[in-house]
Design brief:
The complex is a heterodimer. By secondary structure, chain A is mainly alpha-helical. Chain A has a domain of 72 residues. Helices cover 73% and strands 0% of the residues of chain A. The longest helix of chain A has 36 residues. Chain A is flat and about 70 Å long. By secondary structure, chain B is α+β, with helices and mostly antiparallel strands. Chain B has nine helices and five strands; from the N terminus they run αααβααββαββααα. In chain B, a hairpin with a 3-residue loop joins strand 2 and strand 3. In chain B, helix 1 runs antiparallel to helix 7. The chains are: A mainly alpha, B alpha+beta. At the A-B interface, helix 1, helix 2 and helix 3 of A face helix 1, helix 2 and helix 9 of B.
Amino acid sequence: MNNPPDISQDPKEYEEYAHGVQKHVRGYLMVGALLLTFTAITVALSYVDFGTRKANIGIAMLVATAKAAAVAAVFMHLAAEKRLIYRILIFTGFFVLGLFWLTFFAWFDYPTFH
Amino acid sequence: MEIPYTVSTRPDTGLWNAKVGIWLFLASEVMLFGGLFSAYIFLRIDAAPGTWPHGLLNVPVGTMNTAILIISSVTVVLAWAALKMRRYNAYWWYMLATITCGVIFLTVKLAYEWPQKFEHFGAFIKPDALAKYEQYLGNERRLEKGLEPRIQITGHLHSQNATEYEIALDPVNADPNNPAMDRPHFFPLPVTDKIATVEKADVQRATMFLPTHSAYFASYFTITGLHGLHVLGGVLVFTYMWLPVSKKLYQRNPEHLANRVEVSGLFWHFVDLIWIFVFPLFYLL
C-alpha cells in the first residue's frame, strides 16, 4: 500500500487526489476491524488448552506478531517507505535480536538457585 | 531561523527531516522496551513452579483497553488522512476522538486497574507449612493432575494482629479443589465471604499486589507504567495539535501540520504496537 502523495493545487487533480486518499481510508478502517477481530481471537485462544503453557504462549505471540506487522505495515506506512527508514530498522532489528539472544542463552546457564 | 525540510523532502534521503528523527527515536524506543521484555522473559522462565501468578488481572477490562488503543490508532491515521484531503473539521473530530481514547485508556489504568490491585492481598506460605493450609491450596489434587502447586493465599486483608492475618478469600482459595479453578476465568470472580486465618509464622512474605509482591507485578507495573507515560505523552502532543494554535499553522501551511500529525501518529502507533504484546503476556498467559 503506497502512501497518499502530496496534494495538488490543481482543482481537477485535487479531486482525483482526494479520491485516492479516500481509498486509503477504507484500507485503514479494514485493518482496524481486522485488529479488533484478532484481539478477540487472542482472548478466545487463551482459554483453549493447547497442551502446554509454552504452546499457548507461542500461539498468542504469533497472533500478536501478525497484529503488530499489520500496524507497522499499514498504519506506520512501512509497506512502502524510503530506503533510509528500512536501513534504520535493519540496525534496530539486529541489535534487539542481540538483546534477546543473550536472554535465550541465559536459559542454558548453570542453575544456581531453586 | 527557518528550519529546513519540515515540509519538502531532502533530495538525498527523499524524506523530510522530522520523519527520520521520529524513526531514530522509535529505534531507541524498541531497544528500551526490548530490554524490559527481555527481562520479563528472563524472570518468567526462571520463576520457580507456582510462583508466576496467572489470572490475576481483569481480562474484560484489558480487552476493552486494547480495543480503545486500536480504535485510537485508526482515528489518528484518519485525522492525518483528513488533513491530507484538507478537511480540517474532520481532522478536528478525529483528533478529539484520539485524545478521548487516550484519556479513557489512562483513566481505566490509573483510576480502576491499578488501585484494584493495591487493595488485593497475597500471602506466600512457607514450603514446610503448605500442608497445613491444604484446604485453601488444594495441592494434593493438583499434584495428582500434574499441575503447578499453589503457594499463595490471596484475597482482601480482612484484619491482622501480631500473629495472624485474616484474609477474605479469592474463589481460587475458597474452593481450591473445584476443577473450574484450574484455569483463569474471563470475568473475574469477586472475593468470597470465606475468611481464612493464616499464622504469620507460616508466611514467607505477605504484601498487597504492589511491585514488591513478585517479579510478575514488578514487571507489570514497570512495563504498563512506562507504556502509560508514553500514552500520556501522546495525549499531550495531540492536545497541542488539536488546540486553536495548530489551526493557525494549518492556515499558514497545511502540509506542515499534516507532517506533524504523521510523526506523532507514528509514535502513537508504536505505543499501540507495544500494547499488542503487553496485553497477552500479562493478562492472558
